[in-house]
Design a protein that fits this description.
Mean pLDDT: 82
Order of helices and strands: HHHHHHHHHH
Radius of gyration: 19 Å
CATH architecture of the largest domain: Orthogonal Bundle
CATH superfamily of the largest domain: Tetracycline Repressor, domain 2
Number of helices: 10
Distance between the termini: 59 Å
Structural class: mainly alpha
Shape: elongated
Largest sheet: none
Number of strands: 0
């Protein structure tokens, strides 16, 4: 048993059942240790969650950086993250499950954001970094003439983030820019 085994088992349970529905005994059973074995590494379920969530975010950031910094075309990047759901597949591979098990990840994220403001802040920071990285990739696509040169790079990046999140957390003005950007990309 390692600390990482506990972290991945806890994440797998949290993602599939929700934070409130998982006890340290559940995590211990999943890993094959006693509850005391969990306390060897973590003082509480809250601490385990915070460490586990940071572990997950760091791995997700690394995965996105690799994808966005590669020579892969913007179209292929969008295909991977929006259509093929590469992130969910990666997360489940990391956690040793399958993507069908991860049906409640949005509920889990919302639950955790409500309970732990510091995790909510970390998620927002992650979203900002991801949006900036996507904007760089879009700008590269503009420079390579893969997409129209009049594309609003920041608005397009925000659109992608909104699509990844399944909902928009953007201001009214940004939502309008998103709509305008979509229109400019599709108009003849």
């Amino acid at each position: 048993m390692t600390k990482e085994n506990i972290i991945t088992a806890a994440l797998r349970l949290f993602l599939t059942r929700g934070y409130k529905s998982v006890s340290l005994i559940d995590v211990a059973t999943e890993v094959g240790v006693t509850k005391g074995g969990i306390y060897h590494y973590f003082s509480s379920k809250d601490e385990l969650l915070q460490v586990a969530f940071n572990f997950l975010i760091e791995h997700i950031e690394t995965k996105y950086k690799k994808l966005l910094n590669s020579s892969t075309s913007l179209r292929d990047v969008l295909q991977a993250i929006l259509v093929e759901d590469a992130l969910a597949t990666y997360v489940m591979e990391l956690l040793g499950g399958n993507s069908a098990d991860c049906t409640y990840h949005v509920h889990f994220t919302i639950e955790v954001m409500q309970l732990f403001p510091e995790i909510s802040k970390r998620i927002r920071e992650n979203q900002e970094l991801l949006c900036e990285a996507i904007a760089v990739k879009i700008q590269q696509a503009v420079e390579k003439e893969e997409i129209r040169e009049d594309t609003d790079v920041d608005a397009f990046a925000a659109i992608i983030i909104a699509l990844l999140n399944g909902q928009g957390y953007q201001s009214v003005s940004m939502k309008q820019r998103m709509v305008d950007s979509i229109w400019s990309l599709i108009r003849v």
